[in-house]
Amino acid sequence: MSKLLDPKVLMAIKELSLSAKMTIDGFMSGINKSTVKGPGLEFSQYRSYQPGDDLRSLDWKMFARSDRYYIRESEVETNISIRLLIDASASMNHQDGNFSKIDYARYLAASLAYLGNLQGDAIGLYVFRSGGIFSMLAKQDFQHLARLFYQLEQIRPEGIFTRPIHYKELYGGVQKRELLIFITDLYEMNDEIFTLLDSLNTLRHEVVVFHLMSGNELELDFKGYTSFEDLETKETIQIDQDKARAAYRQKMDQYLEETRIKLLDRRIFYRLLRTDEPLDQALRDFLNQRNKLKI
């Protein structure tokens, strides 16, 4: 078992009574492990024969007993494909105490992948890093899950966010509609992240954005520091935190509200997550919210 899933996280997942049933009427028109009437394996019900029905579905035993034609219907399970999108730009190295954004992203992604795998969903991965995109097709088996955990553990954030010229990779390969879970701090220089989100919308995927921010950057609470460096551009500025804090928080609140509205306008689910929030609560909040969404 990957070190990304410690016993506390596994217990939190186990205690979530939100597995297959919780997602039935939620995301992707409520289909996670729903049932569709068709020629499946598990019997569901009989219905009267209608002209045009496949004669192979006729139940001759029912005909012998009732002298009427009946179609035997079964339940066919359908599952969704989930792709985890991880921001691996240098700003994800930001720390609050001993915990960085990328640490939180790894644990959150691993937990969602584990939970999705238990539900029978196919899980895939995109890692957006400087210079390109790492991709894993979505599959549903524990060996694939182990490989996905390994790739999460190997992420080393650096440089800037992937440039739009590389987004063409998103259009290749399997064109199946997917649920995309984007874990990012939304730090961008030239709207490259919103260009990405607009690209994903054109593919008609369902998108969820987890916006990771640490407590110290939300509150401007960096004890003892007067000089700050941008992790991606390496630019530095001098700040008197006490004098700047009130204006900073006001601008931060404005930025977060504008971000939320921009994503709502794109019909993208948005959730701000503090990296000091318990991971199980983040999972619970997300699953509760996605259950309410409709296409």
TrEMBL record:
Q: Which Pfam families does the entry mention?
A: DUF58
* SUPFAM superfamilies xrefs: vWA-like (SSF53300)
Q: Where is the DUF58 domain?
A: 45-252
Read off the PANTHER family from this record: BLL2464 PROTEIN (PTHR33608), DUF58 DOMAIN-CONTAINING PROTEIN (PTHR33608:SF7)
- Name of the featured protein: DUF58 domain-containing protein
Query: Native species of this protein?
Result: Pedobacter steynii
